[in-house]
Amino acid sequence: MRTKHRLPDPCLISFSLIGGLIVGLTVLALLNLAVKELSDIPFLISTASDSDVINAIVVTMGAGLNAVLILLIIGTPLAYVLARTDFRGKGVVESLVDIPIMLPHTIAGILVYLLFMRRGLLGAPLYAAGFTFEDAYPGIVIAMLFVSAPYYINSVREGFEKVPVHLENVARTLGATRFQTFMRVVLPLSVRHIFNGSILAWGRAIGEFAAIIMIAYYPFVISTLIYYTFTTSGIKASSAVAFVMILACFAAFIILRLLTRYTGRYDDRV
Fold first, then answer.
1. pLDDT in tens, 144-168
2. Is the pTM of this model over 0.70?
3. One-character DSSP codes across 173-220
4. Pick the CATH number of 44-269 from 3.30.365.10, 2.30.40.10, 3.40.30.10, 1.10.3720.10
5. Among the listed residues 64, 252, 221, 242, the one whose alpha carbon sits nearest the alpha carbon of residue 142
6. Which of 101, 202, 197 lies closest to 158, judged by CA?
């Protein structure tokens, strides 16, 4: 019996070609940079092994991770409240959460700076207690936290909304408190969304520049170092630093995406 071969779907082919323009543009930009940098391997190796570049990458990755850890603690409860409750002014709260997405990065930087500078509303008492944010590592973390929060909260909120409410109700009827239900039912079933939200927030945090430079020009994060290198040494040196960071980010995100495949696999079968 002859098997009929299904013809390719014209709609999917068209959509793939159209959407491929975005992927193609990214690949073209990366290949263009790669060709230029790989043409001078000794200079690239020298740049990659430079202590300033290594320190900037470590500070960037570490501060982004710190911002995500803080979001896990303070962003997760907010995401649950937004997912499970309706209250007067909820739209205002949702808009406030999303504001950092819409604001120009320089405005975000000014907001963070005015709040956490040494004479700021929060910065002054914290400075008196020994915590400094201006030109200090905590300032970098706060700036990253501010701009990345919406990405984490919205992703986790979506995960909580996908957990059927009746599962919580069953747990409550069996004697579990709201907190116990959250910890034992909702949280485990939302692991994948929490992990994905953390990746998005971390990626957004390490890519920030303007908000960071407003409050903490030092210590250098990678974006600040690239800007400084460009203004002092030109495009050749700065593009080499950029290429090293691209390789580091590419490796990190491949590992994270591979981990995503094995994180929270059960939540799709609820």
1. 999 999 999 999 999 999 999 999 9
2. yes
3. HTT--HHHHIIIIIHHHTHHHHHHHHHHHHHHHHT--HHHHHH---SP
4. 1.10.3720.10
5. 64
6. 197
